[in-house]
Amino acid sequence: MDHRTTARDRDPDDGSDGSIVARLTAQLREEILSGALKPGERIRQEEIGRRAGVSRAPAREALRALSGEGLVTLAPNVGARVARLEPAELDEVYLIREHLEPAALAHSIPHLTVSQLAALAGMHAQMGEIAGSDEPMAVGRFLEIDRDFHLLMTSAGPMKRLHAIVKGMIDAAQPYRRALLVSDPLQVLRTTNEEHGLILDAVRNGEVQDAATLLELHIRRTRHALERASEMSGLGTKLNRSGGGTS
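Given the sequence above, the corresponding structure tokens read:
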């Protein structure tokens, strides 16, 4: 794990500060979602602690938190590993998203501010630029913006528990989105962002039901594309080797 980022700040080695655990959790989550930590890769508490300059206690708590999010598996006498990805998870993750994410969007739309709508438009424009380029290294950036786009437009409502569930499913879907990009990344990005544009137009116009329906179809289309990819070339192999997704 030496090739990955190290902590910038050194915190007291008491393992009691929740901010230390939160920082470690966020750092490890980002490494998993970005593909820096691969499915099945072992994560050692002592290595996390060494990198962050803390004891194993906060590292252990961070891994427990990620286990609760489904990103890490914990097993006696084995330790922590990045969760392996199985095709059987696909329907569960995406069916939950199909049902709950449009509901979160519907509750969020009336609460979106002018600045948040402007931020969504900016993200859509950035993704359009990436999708129109031939630069493969930009795909990772597209994925980051895509995730932020979905999180922002669904999180303005008062239902924080619903948003927490949706966020967990969006993060859980990230490896599947990476797998989908293996086949034809630029076409996937273009289709994804065209659909983003339709959703954003409905959101800006306050068309709550239309926006929710478009988002549901957007997520379902991705699920069907992943199912086809699974049938054609074996999703399990792609998922456990790929490094970059869409919705």
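The domain at 18-82 is CATH 1.10.10.10 (Arc Repressor Mutant, subunit A). Try to locate this feature in the token string yourself.
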